[in-house]
Design brief:
heterodimer, A: 213 residues, 76% helix
Chain lengths: 213, 100
Amino acid sequence: MSDVQPAEQFSDLAQQHDAAELGMWVFLGSEVLLFGALLLGYWVYRFGHPDGFAEAAHHTSIVIGTINTAILLTSSFLVAWAVSLVKANAARSAAMCFWLASACGIAFLVLKGFEYSGEYREHLVPGLNFRFDGPDHDVARLFFSYYFVATGLHGLHIVIGVALLCVMAIRTRSGRYSSAYHAPPMLAGLYWHFVDLIWIFLFALIYLPGRAA
Amino acid sequence: MNLHWPPRRLLLAWVGLLMLLGLTVTLAYQPLGASNNIAALLIATLKAALVAAVFMELSERRALTIAFASAGFFWLAIMLWLVFSDYLTRPNFPPSAPQL
């Protein structure tokens, strides 16, 4: 829309977009370190107990994990498409893509819920009912503590992301964004892609080890 | 151009990501020994690079934006490097009896 004016401190909207995008990347950098510290702890313990970690990882649900990865990759694609539609002034289609992407996020959370309840039934929740046969009991408890903290923190990010995508869908539909002004949907997209990116690594570290044995 | 078709590069990235997902799950079931972990992490890094370059549009951004995007990973790399220069070399330096 032509009536959108840049904030006082910027000379034009392009400069404002640029500053907003750099700021978003600074925030995402802090998120890299938040999840990075978790991954570091995981790697240190896995290096110390490679067999126990592989044995414990074998008890995660690879079917749900793989489907959830595909769902997140698809939702990321939908968000990227939505942003390109906003830039092309196709508000109605863009809003639809945002709605579909947030539906993917909700599907992810529902499947994650099934997965958690399955793990509860199998007595794999440390602090509640953890039981694990064999010599790897302690290491497996460590693995599942890590599993619940990492996927829980990631799940929280998904919840925030779904809320953001819904807001973007509503505001895009109301015609608030356009080829001239599209910083908010673009930044929400960056956040969502980042959550997807974290999951890509969590999937490789949690679900894939110990499958060949 | 029909606006309601996704841009080609987004479609290609999506298909590529799903194919890499299929590949990494298939490889995880092959008995490759230590290479299993390396393959899983390599493919994860490749997928993350695709998401960053295409979906996050970093391939179209100038160097300054890419520097901002890389900063977190740069510090993470330092953290991993310092920690693992300790843990990975510990077997080379077994604890010895204290010299009294």
